[in-house]
Every structure is written in C-alpha cells, then in structure tokens.
Write a structure and sequence with these properties.
This protein is an alpha/beta fold and 311 residues long. It has a single domain (2-308), classed as Ribonucleoside hydrolase-like (Inosine-uridine Nucleoside N-ribohydrolase, Chain A). 36% of the residues lie in helices and 19% in strands. The strands form two sheets. A nine-stranded mixed sheet has the order 3-2-1-4-5-6-11-9-10, sandwiched between helices. Strand 4, helix 5 (126-134) and strand 5 (142-148) form a beta-alpha-beta unit. Helix 1 (11-21) runs parallel beside helix 10. The longest helix is centred in the C-terminal third of the chain and has 19 residues, at 208-226. The protein is globular and about 55 Å long. It starts with a strand and ends with a helix. The structure holds beta-D-ribofuranose and calcium ion.
C-alpha cells in the first residue's frame, strides 16, 4: 500500500510512523508532510527530520501550513512540550526538508504514482483541505484517508471535541465533505487501544529505536501519570495499526458532519448512523479495539526496527 503521512510530530505521531516503517511488506511510505498542530510547523518538521536521521531512514519530508485556514494556531505544550516532541535530546538533523510546500509536494507526488494512494492523517487537516480545494482532480488519485481525529461522544480539548478536528474545523469539513472514503479513528477506539505505562519500562535497555521510544513515552506519559492513570493513549498509532491488522478493530458506518462554530462545540464530529440503504459519503468510524494485541503490535514493531539498527 502506498501511503503519505500528514502529521504534527508529536510523540504519538512518531510511534505511528515507526509502526509503518517496521512493515515495509505492507507500506511503501512515499512521503511525510507536516502541519501546525501540537507545536509550530517548524518545530514539528524539525522533530521528524531528527527522528529519521537518528534511525537512519531516508524519506522525503515536506513542511506544510503554519496555521489553520481561518484561525490562530493553538499548540499543545501540556501534552507534548514546547517543541511538540519534548523528551529525547537529538542532534540537529543533517537532512533538510523538501524544498516544496507540503501541498505542492502532495499534489505532484500523488499524481506521479501509477496507482491511487492512501493518506494517513494524524494532525489538523489543513494541508489536505487546501490540497483538495486547490487541486480537485487529485481526489480521484486518493483511494482512502485513514485519519486520527474526532469522536462519537467524548472530547479531549472541549467536552465533545477532539484536538485535530478542533484545531482546524474548516479543514476537517472540507475533507469529510470530499467524498473520499474515510476510516476515522476517533477518541473512543483510541481509548480501547491504550498501552499500559509499565510496557514502556523495558524499552530503556532495548536497541536504538526502543531507547528513543522510551524517552519519548517517558515524557509523554507524564500527562497520564499526573492524572493517576496507569496507561496512556497512543492515538496516532491506531489508524496505522488498523491498516496493518484490521482484524483487531471493529466499527460502523456513519454520516459525519463537522461543527465549525461555538465555544462549546467547535470541532465536534456529529455522527449519524448510516442506515445501509445509501452508503455513499458514509465514514467508517472505528469503535472497538483489542488493546492487548494493539500494544503487542507496537512492541513487535520496535523489536523489528531495533534489529535493523546499529547500536
Ligand atoms: C491528537 O492530538 C495530538 O495531540 C496527537 O498527536 C493526536 O494526533 C489526539 O487528539
Ligand atoms: Ca498528531
């Protein structure tokens, strides 16, 4: 499967990318694009370039939109630190980002493929909305969008709104209205795909990739520990895990509309079950996950990547 990952790394974004990298038999990663979300677009771009250098992986990275379509950026230092990926101290990356803007990069690279591609969207969908509006013909070349964002009932930034959709609701509205098949990993399935904090401890004495993940999760888990939780969500890894092992997940079809206004409801994904008669425009929302097997998939991926690394 040819994939492009649009993201804002972001501790959990990095885990999602590592999970995909561990499975070249399944995924051909054609590029990574970045967008303002967890931190500034400059920071999140630097973060992923540093990670890729550290693990010796060469994939084009293109920096995208510095702000949502109509709103001010709202970085999330409480969860991810000022850099968007606090924790590990990695040297500056030697590799530079692609000279093209992420939207141009996606347009040119998607059209260059000889088969339709899958977009994995792990961040506010500003780049994707601008891509679809500027180059409508590209829709035909996108087979599916597998995204982390939204919710059926819960919220993590407002009582009923998830961060990625909240951050750029106008962008989410464009993407959800595009008619491209969407698989949505919202907060409910991510809550079932949680990982116990104790599972990260042994990574401290693992290989190069495991040690990096230990440092990432040691910082990121601080948010959970401060709340007395013995687990953490690894949100962005969920859509990648579902593409890799769909049998671990279940969900249903919904019509999804995006609320763009309101102090209480901005970014809410309003989902109505599809009755089956007309499924066009319906979104698959994942609802349940086998949490233990999800965690095992993540840890296996780290072992695979460690084995391919010098120490
Ligand atoms: C989402 O918001 C970000 O903080 C995470 O990286 C994830 O994409 C979870 O709501
Ligand atoms: Ca993210």
């Amino acid at each position: 499967m040819r994939i492009f990952i649009d993201c804002d790394p972001g501790h959990d974004d990095v885990l999602a990318i590592l999970l995909a990298l561990a499975h070249p038999e399944k995924f051909t990663m054609q590029g990574i694009t970045t967008v303002a979300g967890n931190s500034t677009v400059r920071h999140v771009t630097d973060n992923i370039l540093k990670v890729l250098d550290h693990i010796g992986v060469s994939i084009p990275v293109a920096m995208g939109c510095a702000r949502p379509i109509r709103r001010e950026p709202e970085p999330q230092p409480a969860a991810h630190g000022e850099s968007g990926m606090d924790g590990p101290s990695l040297p500056e990356a030697r590799t530079k980002a692609d000279a093209r803007h992420a939207v141009t990069f996606l347009h040119e690279e998607i059209l260059r493929q000889d088969a339709p591609v899958t977009i994995v969207a792990l961040a506010p969908m500003t780049n994707l909305a601008i891509l679809l509006e500027t180059y409508p013909a590209v829709r035909e070349r996108i087979e599916r969008i597998c995204m982390m964002g939204g919710s059926l009932r819960g919220g993590n930034i407002l009582p009923r709104s998830e961060f990625n959709v909240y951050h750029d609701p106008e962008a989410a509205k464009v993407v959800f209205g595009s008619g491209i098949p969407i698989v949505m990993s919202g907060l409910e399935v991510c809550a079932e795909a949680k990982t116990m904090l104790r599972a990260f401890e042994p990574l401290k004495s693992g290989g190069r990739v495991s040690r990096l993940v230990y440092e990432l999760m040691n910082y990121y888990s601080g948010y959970a520990r401060a709340r007395g939780w013995d687990y953490t969500n690894v949100f962005d890894a969920v859509p990648v895990a579902q593409m890799l092992a769909p049998e671990l997940f279940s969900g249903s079809k919904y019509r999804v509309e995006i609320e763009t206004e309101g102090d209480l409801c901005r970014g809410m994904t309003v989902a109505t079950p599809c009755d089956g008669a007309e499924s066009k425009g319906c979104v698959t929302i994942l609802e349940h996950a086998d949490g233990a097997r999800f965690s095992a998939l993540m840890l296996d991926a780290l072992r695979i990547l460690d084995a391919a690394q010098p120490d």
